[in-house]
Design a protein that fits this description.
Number of strands: 15
Distance between the termini: 29 Å
CATH class of the largest domain: Alpha Beta
Number of helices: 8
Strand content: 25-35%
CATH architecture of the largest domain: Alpha-Beta Barrel
Number of domains: 2
Largest sheet: 9 strands, mixed
């Protein structure tokens, strides 16, 4: 069993118990983040902390740890679990209170974090490319907050897995928004397209891809594309914290482009790997 952080203490995972009155348990009243760690160095930790605090603020509660305390907690979890290539999951709920819909005036947030081994898809998987399905985006109006309410995402991903697919592209009002756990990009005539920040998650990896496009002079547009246009693209790729950059070569049984990961994907992938290497070297 691993050592986890739970409400200010480092305990064995089986010792971390949550009250049945916790609002995260009853209402999914909480936020979370997943931070990737390379060779002991957390990648884009400050961006994750900023997004987590923003989400908590939008839900009208506060995170009871400072950024410095969270940074220390991350390093301590890595040390206690003897991990260097890892992901750190952090979750903060409003805490325990009598079950009622209005937010309680007084609350003590529940803070939980765990570090686990993590790795991106192998080079062999990337060379083959992944497949996906399309699925209605029925998550509601708070997609821009990284809440622990992921039931709609889980449903879509489960349906993808049952059809032998790696992911599900979510479709809202006829437009591809993102995937269940990753941002979605397509490439048409050399231009990269991704859905604008309009009720989708402000993905940290998505942000990195956009920054890399600006740095390298790639043409990238944040524009909503109809699903038929998206699936007719030359390339499709996904971007996420743990998976990094992943090519999609088939959706709903339809071949994307020539059925192989394309040159734009590889360009983005290599640039992202170089950024990881740069951050890791600098510590």
């Amino acid at each position: 069993m691993s050592t986890v952080f739970f409400n200010g203490e480092y305990v064995r995972s089986e010792e971390a118990t949550v009250s049945p009155e916790d609002r995260g348990f009853n209402f999914a009243d909480g936020v979370y983040e997943v931070v990737r760690v390379y060779r002991g160095v957390p990648f884009c930790l400050e961006d994750h902390l900023q997004r987590m605090r923003y989400g908590a603020s939008e839900l009208d509660f506060s995170i009871p740890l400072t950024d410095a305390e969270i940074r220390e907690m991350v390093q301590e979890l890595l040390k206690r679990n003897d991990l260097s290539e890892a992901m750190v999951y952090m979750q903060v709920t409003r805490g325990a209170a009598r079950r009622a819909h209005p937010f309680p005036d007084d609350y003590a947030p529940t803070v939980y974090a765990v570090a686990r081994e993590a790795s991106a898809p192998s080079k062999e998987d990337l060379k083959r490319g992944m497949n996906a399905i399309t699925h209605p985006d029925n998550r509601g109006g708070l997609c821009y907050i990284k809440t622990v309410n992921l039931l709609a995402n889980c449903l879509a991903m489960t349906r993808a897995k049952r059809r032998g697919a790696y992911e599900a592209l979510l479709v809202r009002d006829g437009f591809v928004t993102e995937a269940t756990a990753r941002s979605a990009f397509c490439v048409i005539d050399g231009t990269i397209y991704t859905y604008p920040l309009a009720n989708i998650l402000p993905s940290i990896t998505r942000k990195n891809v956009i920054e890399l496009a600006e740095e390298n002079g790639w043409n990238l547009q944040e524009r909503a594309l109809p699903v038929d246009t998206f699936l007719a693209a030359d390339e499709i790729f996904l971007a996420g914290t743990v998976a990094e950059i992943v090519p999609v070569v088939e959706v709903d049984g339809q071949t994307i482009g020539n059925g192989r990961p394309g040159p734009v994907f590889w360009r983005v992938y290599e640039a992202f790997q170089e950024r990881i290497e740069s951050v890791t070297r600098s510590g």
